[in-house]
What we know:
Blueprint: H1 7-21, E1 39-40, E2 54-64, E3 76-78, E4 81-86, E5 90-95, E6 101-106, E7 122-124, E8 133-137, E9 142-147, E10 163-164, E11 178-179, E12 184-186, E13 189-192, E14 194-195, E15 209-212, E16 218-221, E17 254-256, E18 261-265, E19 287-292, E20 298-303, E21 319-325, E22 328-336, E23 342-346, E24 356-360, E25 374-378, H2 399-410, E26 426-428, E27 435-444, E28 449-455, E29 459-468, E30 471-480, E31 496-502, E32 508-513, H3 518-522, E33 537-539, E34 543-546, E35 553-558, E36 564-569, E37 579-582, E38 588-594, E39 611-618
Amino acid sequence: MxxxxxxxxxxxxxAIAVATSAAPVDWxxxxxxxxxxxxxxxxxxxxxNVAGLKPAWTYNSGDPSVGFRGWEVTPIVVDNxxxxxxTGKKIVALNAETGAEIWKVDLTALGVKEMAAKYGVSYWxxxxxxxxxxxxxxxxxxxxxxxxxxxxxFTKVGAKGLIDLKAGVMEKFGGSYTPGATPxxxxxxxxxxxxxxxxxxxxxxxxxxxxxxxxGKEVWRFHTVPQPGEANFGTWGLNGWQDRRGPGSWVPLxxxxxxxxxxxxxxNATDQNYGGSRPGxxxxxxxxxxxxxxxxKLKWHFQITHHDIFxxxxxxxxxxxxVNKDGRKIPAIAQSTxxxxxxxxxxxxxxxxxxAEERPALSSDAPGETTSPTQPVPLKPEPISRVSMTRDEVxxxxxxxxxxxxxxYDKAVQAGPNTPYLMVPSLVFPSSEGGGSWGGVSxxxxxxxxxxxxxxxxxxxxxxxxxxxGLLDSYAKRKIPFDDPEGYPCSGTPWGELMAIKASTGExxxxxxxxxxxxxxxxxxxxxxxxxxxGPIVTAGGLVFVGSTSDRMFRAxxxxxxKELWSVGxxxxxxxxxxxxxxRSGRQYVAIATSNGLNEFTKPRIPAGQTNQLHVFAxx
Length: 620
């Protein structure tokens, strides 16, 4: 008798063979590594078998799922243990293969009033004398360290283990000090930058700072608003630098340990939409800066937007890539932006590898405003989202929608990229909710692909008088929804996309719509994409995993072609970046958190009363 094996059987047997021999693969930081590649060497799950993914286990945090941003956590896994925070102010360690709880710490019992800083926790492997630790920054300005094995608080630094990040910074200003994200780890240093808000001239400085984890002492600090005697002083006008709030960073930092560099994506200047008190280019606002990770000394800077009045804060963690160009291997970083551009910069010099040019920009009509006459644009890659729209490019999902959206378009100024908020209605496209999201990009070194998800969304707005630092001396935008009568975006589809760009050429390899509105698909209007937030990951198995969309779905795509291969419905949205790891058993898992995030764009609304959950998938 002859037996024939089906393709499914072969794929399953191959997976079993890999599982019994593969070594564990960790995910030790938010972006898989501090280079933020979001790439995993795990290869058990492939395009041939990904359709067989099934739920492995679920963790219910018990925390109510509320708020626009939701639970933005990405867990980390080290040595078969998964670590993350909950919105209920707890730090949790689980068995990564079973979900069984190993330890849990309640921050409120330690005197901490706010939850951990966004996105997750950090892992420090120790230095030979100190045991590995979980490092946590909290939203009320403390840095804490926990024994990675037991969860015990390390109490020999700070005030009984609480390093006060406000000390030496906030005495003059008062108020809160909120780290923008979990600290980056370099040697025995924890490096972080605060989020500083977007309105009000005076307040918390956004300076990156490094702390010695063994002593709790500040090692260095870099001024993001240059002080007298420092390089680039004077780019805020005569007095605009004094006690200036920010610019800080609200996304994770990246570290090049080989070259001893830390990269910081900085936010916009305050007041965010009016620069009357800050004439000049406003370095280092809306910039990427490269600092010596050992000393904090500036190595280079690259400003994405001069004199930012657009809310173009650099909103994603820089990702390290390698560019093979003209016979040279160039260490580089890839930076997605709200403006809808992807910058590929030389990691050592900060120069755009594929060139750039300054292009004219529309001037603001706000009294006392001095707009930058030009803004930088990369020559390659092509824009990762649409960067302007014409009257004919409104959404066409219904005749009524076309009429409404064109009528709205006719009432506003739209002058292409970098249209400012004006004293009369303007259409800013993409809006601050458009372009690349805070999830940033991932990098597949095997394919030489940079993977990124984006949004093509606009907003109508008008400037109105506003109080800055208690004085009626500024202007702030009043947003006007740019939606059709059904509540869908007025910009033409696709509203969300996923794409791959070849790092060594800057050419687009593929781009596909990301997400769907099922009720529109039922009407024959498919491939619309949806608003999305969070990022993709990529694996050595040849897959891209991404949640991010407002349709409560988790998807896998073929990294080589962009073809969707697998999807699963979730109880809520996954507004974060997933992760993957291979346990001690050799089994590969993929995990993603869900919550009530991005609810503004979700149709139908997510039912109330749900809790934040972590969903983990694996092959049967």
